[in-house]
Design a protein that fits this description.
Helices cover 44% and strands 17% of the residues. It is of the alpha/beta class and 697 residues long. The strands form four sheets. It has a seven-stranded parallel beta sheet with strand order 3-2-4-1-5-6-7, with helices on both faces. A six-stranded mixed beta sheet has the order 20-19-21-18-17-22, sandwiched between helices.
């Protein structure tokens, strides 16, 4: 059974990092224990870790010792080759790979980089390594600087070489291709390939080729004067300052790198003011040339600004600086979050990972890990893209999550608020966020505002609401966002980062209402533990439900579990298991269980049952032998809010489990409430959940 995949390239700067990141994202969504391995790495005198390895381990939080992720350095393999001991190198590579194979379900192997001494031999190394590891291979090549004939002939030669060495090539990936050439190139490659070998093309993505301000600083050996915390900013076009400010400002575009002599205080301050202004694009940074630093009063003025992009001083003149920046070959680093997300989104958009991975036979889904669950959530959300409104647009957590969602293109985001204030907040927190990728609505200025006011008046006039009251309500972002959903202008809402639960869900209860057959709104958390995902309900809404309400919570929670790919086995929790306990609290749970059995006779349910008997197989067999639920419950229903809220938080804090939610159940359209202590990940995950709910699941 194959347990790995080899990624090989034909030249440097092929962009195979996109392939590694995209594949790792998909593989982690299909299997639990995944390793990453590089047979040969570069190692410089500084002793820094390999950048490819650091990026993968960091972004995907892989629990693998760094020393296990590679076999040899380039110098070591060259020494062995020169000494006629290339076989020794292969033995070390195979031994390290096999050690990972024993511990992990799958290993993604990334070949060498074609840089430095010995690059001429690397093609043969990759063929030899893939052959000796017995791994199917993806061949990656870049179209940059090649004619069609050069590109196709080099890939044909590579494919035939791998085949002659009995290495199975499952796909050729043409990377960094001009969109107009994709069809021609695909047809040319298919001429020499058998039907079972796929041809995949990925276009040139400008933002991935753009260096960060850190790469610019390192290449030019510059000194950071201000804004060191924003060195991960991606650069855009150059705006070279050699004219008067009034003319220079017209040359600034989104993400521009301003390049100007260090004594041009007018251009420096004007560029920073443009960055802050809502009337001009944001810039990525400023490079001051000629080894000249601004005078002390100017430095003091810059230091006092609330928002500062990286300001870097370099010794080269303006012409040489511009030339050097233009020649930087950009890489993806662990801290390059925007590039990593863009890479994954690009891969998902242009490569059918399912098709590639279906060719491999090693995936066994014995458990659903948290990462697999999150991956599947994103895949579900992508199937039918929905429009989600975020009313709390000035909260940094909301903006950061929205920026990530926009890069991955999972949902269409609507932010409520003043566009100028939102841009100012984005600049203030140093967030690289292309606000053109989202819609920003100021409620009072929205074209449908009066229609919303009239609709709310008609819906609530029986509650003595007049037009003035309706207009005031529609200026409230929670009411406005909920009305967007009611009118079909948005598919769902996520709020609660700065508003109370009551403020968030009251409008939904007033006019979105509950689904037919649902008398109450309840909630669930998806608790992502190390080896499973459990559904906890209700931990956020109902303080003390009666038996009928508890039964309804259980049924809704079971439906939610099934909708998200979790087989519902429902445990109705209490302080007693089976028939042993007595008292009002346990009787309520017993009655609720019977109601569920009557309404849903096919649902696997047990209650009352204690928590340990519900989740521990040995305890479950001991206390409730023969039960289909005991010891393997996936849906845990708590008898009251006090128990549920404390338990989910205890499990989250003590085990490190990821708690996704709360997700509200029972409303006609999805509205979800965040905790005021939520993280960026909480916002991101809740938006994805909301989008899936909006698909009607």
């Amino acid at each position: 059974m194959n347990k790995g995949l080899y990624i090989a390239t034909l030249e440097p700067n092929s962009g195979k990092s996109i392939i590694s990141l995209g594949l790792m994202q998909n593989i982690l969504g299909k299997t639990a224990k995944v390793a990453y391995f590089r047979p040969v790495i570069n190692k410089d005198a500084s002793g820094k870790h390999d950048n490819h390895i650091e990026t993968i381990l960091s972004h995907f939080n892989l629990d693998i010792p760094y020393t296990d992720t590679y076999a040899l350095t380039r110098n070591e393999i060259m020494q062995n080759r020169n000494a006629g001991k290339i076989g020794d190198s292969l033995d070390i590579i195979i031994k390290k790979y096999k050690a990972l194979e024993e511990q992990y379900d799958f290993i993604l192997v990334e070949g060498t980089d074609f840089t430095g001494e010995g690059s001429v031999f690397e093609f043969d190394w990759n063929v030899n390594i893939a052959k000796n590891l017995g791994l199917p291979t993806l061949l990656v090549s870049t179209g940059v600087g090649k004619t069609l004939e050069e590109f196709t002939s080099s890939l044909e030669m590579a494919y035939k070489t791998y085949k002659e060495e009995d290495v199975e090539v499952i796909a050729l990936i043409a990377n960094k291709i001009q969109p107009k050439n994709i069809d021609i190139l695909t047809a040319a490659l298919q001429k020499f390939l058998p039907d079972h070998v796929e041809v995949l093309t990925i276009p040139m993505v400008k933002s991935l080729a753009s260096p960060t301000m850190k790469e610019i600083k390192d290449t030019l050996q510059g000194e950071v004067l201000f804004g060191e915390e924003h060195l991960s900013n991606l650069s855009g076009k150059f705006a070279v300052g050699a004219m008067q400010l009034r003319n220079f400002l017209t040359h600034i575009t989104e993400g521009s790198v301003v390049i100007t002599p260090g004594d041009r205080a007018d251009l420096i301050l004007g560029s920073l003011q443009a960055h802050i202004s809502s009337n001009y694009p944001s810039i990525s940074g400023i490079v001051l040339t000629g080894g000249i630093k601004p005078e002390p009063p100017i430095l003091q003025l810059i230091d006092g600004l609330s928002t500062v992009v990286p300001v870097i001083s370099v010794n080269d003149g303006t012409f040489n600086t511009t030339h050097k920046i233009g020649n930087i070959k950009s890489n993806i680093y662990a801290e390059s979050k925007s590039k990593i997300l863009t890479s994954i989104e690009t891969f998902q958009k242009y490569v059918s990972a399912e098709g590639l991975l279906d060719k491999l036979t090693s995936f066994e889904n014995k458990v659903i890990t948290p990462r697999m669950f999150q991956f599947n959530l994103i895949q579900k959300a992508l199937k039918h893209k929905k429009r989600i409104v975020l009313p709390e647009a000035l909260d940094p957590r909301i903006l950061t999550a929205a920026a990530r969602l926009a890069v991955l293109d999972i949902v269409d985001i609507v932010l409520l608020g003043d566009p100028k204030a939102i841009k100012a907040k984005v600049n203030e927190i140093g967030l690289q966020f292309d606000l053109k990728k989202v819609q920003i609505i100021l409620p009072a200025s929205y074209s449908k505002f009066e229609d919303y006011v009239n609709t709310f008046y008609e819906l609530r006039k029986h509650k003595n609401v007049n037009m003035d009251m309706a207009r005031d309500m529609m200026n409230d972002v929670s009411y406005f966002a909920t009305m967007m959903i009611y009118k079909g202008d948005a598919d769902g809402m996520v709020s609660g980062a700065i508003h109370t639960t009551q403020h968030t869900i009251r409008p939904a209860l007033q006019f979105i209402k509950t689904k037919p057959g649902c008398s109450i709104v309840s909630s669930v958390f998806f608790m992502c533990l190390d080896d499973r995902v459990s559904v906890f309900g209700d931990c956020a809404i109902n303080p003390n439900p009666n038996a009928a309400q508890l039964a309804e919570i259980a049924i809704s929670s079971a439906h939610s579990a099934a909708a998200f790919g979790i087989e519902p086995r429902v445990a109705m929790l209490s302080y007693s298991s089976g028939t042993s306990g007595q008292g009002a609290d346990v009787e309520k749970v017993r009655e609720a269980t019977e109601i569920v059995k009557q309404k849903c006779p096919d649902l696997k349910i047990e209650g009352p049952i204690q928590y340990d008997a519900a989740v521990d197989l040995n305890v479950g067999k001991s206390k409730m032998p023969g039960s289909e639920v005991a010891g393997q419950a996936t849906v845990l229903i708590f008898p009251d809010l006090n128990t549920g809220n404390n338990t989910y938080k205890a499990v989250q804090r003590e085990t490190g489990a990821l708690a996704i939610g709360p997700m509200l159940q029972g409303l006609n359209k999805p509205v979800n409430d965040l905790s005021r202590g939520c993280t960026v990940d909480d916002v991101f995950n809740t938006v994805v959940l909301t989008a899936i709910q909006a698909q009607g699941l």
